Amino acid sequence: MRYAFIDAEKATEHNPDGHGVSLMCRVLGVSRSGYYAWRAARPAAAARADQESELVTEIRKLHTQSRRAYGSPRITAALRRTGRRINRKRVERLMREHDLRGITRRGRRSLTRPDKKAVFSPDLVERDFTAVEPGTKLVSDITYLPTLAGWWYLATR
């Protein structure tokens, strides 16, 4: 990064052979104000990095306690229960950067359930759907259509 280079090569009392900040900024094509803003933000960035490494340790601990099942929403909720003020997106980012993923356990869902008291119709076609001429064997099918009003069932013949 250009700012780090300027910071390392600038003239100071310990490095009298260095160059001036103005000259290096002009040569490297960056603004002096940008360099000084970067320099002022470094302690905050270092403190944030320390906080994030501490936070990642807590996230890893919660993740392993949940047998690697918890994702970012549950990890965030667990951290908030301990009194931490934290955003879910930050937890998502840290989990993604450190390759921590939750397990999605989805239950099986059945759209149709047979009536236990129903009398089954006999298979008159006996699974042979070939016909000698049209109209001799008629079969039908049913499908499910998801709509805003719920599931609609469509029977065709």
Topology readout:
Layout: H1 2-9, H2 21-28, H3 32-65, H4 72-81, H5 88-97, E1 141-147, E2 150-156
Antiparallel strand pairs: 1-2
Helix pairs in contact: 4-5
Explained architecture:
This protein is mainly alpha-helical and 157 residues long. The chain contains five helices and two strands, in the order αααααββ. A two-stranded antiparallel ribbon has the order 1-2. A hairpin with a 2-residue loop joins strand 1 (141-147) and strand 2. The chain starts with a helix and ends with a strand. The relative contact order is 0.07.
Number of helices: 5
Mean pLDDT: 87
Q: Which range best describes the helical content: under 10%, 10-25%, 25-40%, 40-55%, 55-70% or over 70%? A: 40-55%
Q: H/E element string? A: HHHHHEE
Q: How much strand content do the residues show?
A: 5-15%
* N→C terminal distance: 70 Å
